[in-house]
Amino acid sequence: GAGVSQSPSNKVTEKGKDVELRCDPISGHTALYWYRQSLGQGLEFLIYFQGNSAPDKSGLPSDRFSAERTGGSVSTLTIQRTQQEDSAVYLCASSFAPGWNTEAFFGQGTRLTVV
Amino acid sequence: TQLLEQSPQFLSIQEGENLTVYCNSSSVFSSLQWYRQEPGEGPVLLVTVVTGGEVKKLKRLTFQFGDARKDSSLHITAAQPGDTGLYLCAVVLSYNTDKLIFGTGTRLQVFP
Q1: Other CB atoms closer than 10 Å to residue B85's CB: what's the count?
Q2: Helix (H) or strand (E) holding B93
Q3: Which helix (H) or strand (E) segment is B94 a member of?
Q4: Which residues pair with B1 in a beta bridge?
Q5: Which of B19, B20, B10, B12 is CA-nearest to residue B71?
Q6: Chains A and B: how many Cβ contacts under 8 Å?
Q7: pLDDT tens figures, A7-28
Q8: High-pLDDT (> 90) share of chain B, %
Q9: Dihedral sign, CA of A84, A86, A88, A89?
Q10: Closest CA to A102 of A46, A62, A48
């Protein structure tokens, strides 16, 4: 498909384990965002990639969270030593270019449950 | 404190009623967007407002950007069950990077 693809759609993991969440953005989109959404609330900004620029990591809640974007396309969000409070829906979005008039296209999210 | 505060947080109404939801901030923005998120899906863009005082209409939805570009409202006329969802306002912060920041959201439930 031509949309943003996220995998897995659901992930159940044990407390203390590491998890990797994947995002395939729309081809040609230079900007990529990760958000966390708890219990259907608003979106908490995590990290933003734009082209070859250094990512904006200002939203990552702890050093257990990291993300990379390889080749300016696919991105992986890694959570190490997961905790129960990490349980949430993780949403990825991409846009053609940054700026005030750009439209962000979202994937369906990965629902992470830490037990 | 949240950059973008939305109110009300929850709203349950009957089909046919009118409603208004708000997005407020103490900061000035060059533009503001509204998204709608349905259960199990990612948010989808509804509109972008740019000019202070601007009003945009999308069928039964009317969006307004405040004169001072600090706030916005979304008015729905004759709400339908299909309007049910989470409504989110969003702005691009251009201090160091052009990251897109979302508000706290308003969850709307429209009953038949």
Answers
A1: 20
A2: strand B85-93
A3: none
A4: none
A5: B20
A6: 77
A7: 999 999 999 999 999 999 999 8
A8: 80
A9: negative
A10: A48
Chain B residue with Cα closest to A92: B42
Strand pairing of B10-14 and B106-111?
Answer: parallel
Look at strands A75-79 and A65-69 and give their pairing.
antiparallel
Encode pLDDT of A32-53 as tens digits. Answer: 999 999 986 889 999 999 988 8
Give the span between the Cα atoms of A88 and A80, in whole angstroms: 15
User: Which residues in B have their CB inside 8 Å of a CB on A?
Assistant: 2, 6, 30-31, 33, 35, 39-45, 48, 50, 86, 88, 90, 92, 94, 96-105, 107
**Residues A86, A80: contact at Cβ < 8 Å?**
no
Q: Please report the DSSP string for chain A in residue order.
A: --S-EEE-SEEEE-TT--EEEEEEPPTT--EEEEEEE-TT-PEEEEEEEETTSPPB-TT--STTEEEEEGGGS-EEEEE-S--GGG-EEEEEEEESS-STTPPPEE---EEEEE-
In one-letter notation, the amino acid at residue B68 is A
Whether A74 has its CB under 8 Å from any CB of chain B: the answer is: no
Q: Smallest CA–CA separation between B26 and chain A, in Å?
A: 18
DSSP state of B15: T
